[in-house]
Structures are given as C-alpha cells and as structure tokens.
C-alpha cells in the first residue's frame, strides 16, 4: 500500500451529482487496488447522500491527510464543513453551494502543492454558483491555473481512442476565432503529445483541425488555415512531431474515433467537445437518462496533476441515485496513470 498514490477527490457542487458519483466510485474495490483515495469537501453532504441512497458506506471524518485509513467501505473525507444540510436543495443554483465547491477545489490544490496529494480529481461544479459566491472563474481549468500560477495550459479530453486538446475553451465563438494563432497551436500540440506519452499512448500521430468548413478550402471559406494553422503544422513537422493538418474537422474526428490519430487538436470548445461526447456519452431514450457517461478532462501544463469528469452537474437527476459514476472512475484511473509517470520520471 505504501507505493500507491494518494488521490484527492473534490465533491463538486453539493446540489449536483458530484457527491453521489464520488461515493459510488469509492465503493469499487478496484479503486483501492490502484490508489489511496480521499474525498475533499463536506462530510455532512457525503453522509446525506449515503443515507438518502442507502449506500453501503460509512464516513471517516479527517482534518489532516495523515488521518486517512484508505479502507473500502469506510470513506475518508477531508471535512471543510461548509454546507448547511438543512438548506441544501438538490438541483438548485446557490452561492452557498458555489462557495463550498470552490473551497474544496482550492483545498486540493493547496494539498497537492504541499506534496500531501499525488494527484487531484475534481467533481462537477456549477459556474453560476461559484460566480454568485464571488469567485469569478470560467471553470476548474482557470481556477487551477490561477492558484498554481500557470500561464501555459490547455484542456485535454480523454476517452478510449479519442484524445482531444483545445486551442481555446471557455470564450465566445468570436473570441475563439481570434485565438487561432500559430504560437498557441504549437503550444497545445506540445502539451497534447506530452499528455499522450504520460498516459501510455504509443500512437503519437496528431491531427490538427482546420477552423473553417473544409479547412478553408484553399481560402474560399476563410484564411486562418493559411495564416496560422499551416505555419504551425510546418513548424511542428520541422521539430520532429508526427502531425497532419489542417484537416477538415468533419473527417478528422471520424478518423480519430478509429484510432488513426493518437490525439487531435481542436480549434475551439464545441469543435472538440461535440464529437468527443458523441463517442463517450450513451443516452437511453426509453429510460430518459444516460446509461453511461465516459470521458476525462485533464488540465495539461500544471505543476500538479488534475483530472476531472467531463460532464456537468446534472442538476435534473441530482439526489435520485441514477447518476453514472463511470467518468469518475476513469478520472481517478487517469490520475493514477499520470502520477505513476510523474513519479517514474522525477529525480
């Protein structure tokens, strides 16, 4: 057990499915075979979920990582005591829940920077709730970048054969187009390749998407491919990267899903997220719910490891016991892989 990495997992928004999927994931024996997991957030919220859903677990409340037992069925919770259970309403936006979820994220960052955690995993937060609490961030990625003083970072999505990094994420579409610059494309491609290696990917061929329909079609539908994307591809090829592009995105992602590319570069948020979620999210129309939600969000470029579920708070099903914890399990497993690589390559 001494060799297993210690993984801190945030509860996410207390009114979301975050606490539920965290508890469910830590009821899997395989998680304890791979790591030493502990939850960071409010013990009262996790206990409320256990009681409401009648889950086979108890809580070990701790105030220091050294107090954790890492025992299946007796879940360690680094308690911040932020949430008043009497006021908690599942599925509702609130400043109180925003504050609780934000403080959990801030705490795992502090613990990881202090060397008490080998990696961090985040549950889903509600951006409006954290902003109502006075924390004006677009999401987890920006919070981590701020508190680790990181300037060069990017969002990497991982699910089976699909690995997608983004030139830009939480900005308007207009700004996203303006952000398609050669320097940024080179930077995120370098981060993608590093992430692929750290995750054990052997196929290092990278597809780089065009921005415009048909990748601009020789300038008929836009010039960004000629002015910035192709020059980035040329620079990467000269540096020894196995890259291809600019590739029309409607064909690039079809090829990526088969494993032709080990990873791909998307120019903006929805260009990457839509095909990624089509691959990993399985909707059951008859039941009116997701059968499976798979996908991991990794922030590349940080001095600490951060993975996350790649889905939202799912307020509409919070507290009902039907949330899939597949993505949380995958996020924890990815954090373990990254921590092992980091340990093996740190002297």
TrEMBL record:
Q: What class of enzyme is it?
A: oxidoreductase
Highest rank taxon of the organism: Bacteria
Q: What EC number(s) does its UniProt record assign?
A: 1.1.1.262
The record's GO molecular-function terms, alphabetically, read: 4-hydroxythreonine-4-phosphate dehydrogenase activity
Q: Which UniProt keywords apply?
A: Metal-binding, NAD, Oxidoreductase
Q: Does the keyword Ribonucleoprotein apply?
A: no
Name any one Pfam family assigned in the record: PdxA
Entry's transmembrane regions: none
The protein here is known as 4-hydroxythreonine-4-phosphate dehydrogenase PdxA
Classification of source organism? Bacteria, Pseudomonadati, Bacteroidota, Chitinophagia, Chitinophagales
Q: Name the encoding gene, please.
A: pdxA
């Amino acid at each position: 057990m001494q060799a297993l990495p210690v993984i801190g997992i945030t509860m996410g928004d207390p009114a979301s499915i975050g606490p539920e999927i965290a508890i469910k994931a830590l009821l899997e024996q395989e998680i304890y075979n791979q790591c030493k997991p502990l939850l960071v957030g409010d013990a009262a919220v996790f206990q409320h979920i256990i009681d409401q859903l009648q889950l086979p677990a108890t809580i070990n409340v701790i105030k220091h990582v050294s107090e954790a037992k890492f025992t299946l069925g007796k879940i360690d919770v680094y308690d911040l005591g932020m949430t008043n259970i009497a006021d908690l309403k599942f599925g509702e936006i609130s400043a109180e829940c925003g504050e609780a979820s934000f403080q959990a994220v801030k705490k795992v960052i502090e613990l990881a920077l202090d060397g008490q955690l080998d990696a961090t995993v985040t549950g889903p937060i509600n951006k409006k709730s954290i902003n109502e609490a006075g924390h004006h961030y677009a999401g987890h990625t920006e919070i981590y970048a701020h508190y680790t003083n990181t300037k060069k970072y990017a969002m990497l999505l991982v699910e089976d054969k699909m690995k997608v990094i983004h030139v830009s994420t939480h900005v308007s579409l207009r700004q996203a187009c303006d952000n398609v610059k050669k320097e940024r494309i080179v930077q995120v491609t370098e981060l993608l390749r590093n992430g692929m290696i750290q995750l054990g990917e052997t196929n290092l061929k990278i597809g780089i998407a065009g921005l415009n329909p048909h990748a601009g079609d020789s300038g008929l539908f836009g010039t960004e491919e000629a002015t910035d994307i192709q020059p980035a591809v040329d620079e990467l090829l000269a540096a020894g990267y196995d890259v291809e592009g600019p590739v029309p995105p409607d064909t690039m992602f079809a090829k990526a899903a088969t494993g032709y590319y080990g990873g791909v570069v998307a120019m903006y948020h929805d260009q990457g997220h839509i095909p990624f979620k089509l691959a990993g999210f399985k909707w059951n129309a008859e039941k009116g719910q997701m059968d499976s939600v798979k996908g991991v969000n990794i922030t590349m470029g940080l001095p600490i490891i951060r993975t996350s579920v790649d889905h939202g708070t799912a307020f509409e099903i919070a507290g009902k016991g039907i949330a899939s914890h597949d993505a949380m399990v995958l996020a924890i497993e990815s954090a373990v892989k990254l921590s092992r690589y980091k340990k093996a390559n740190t002297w």
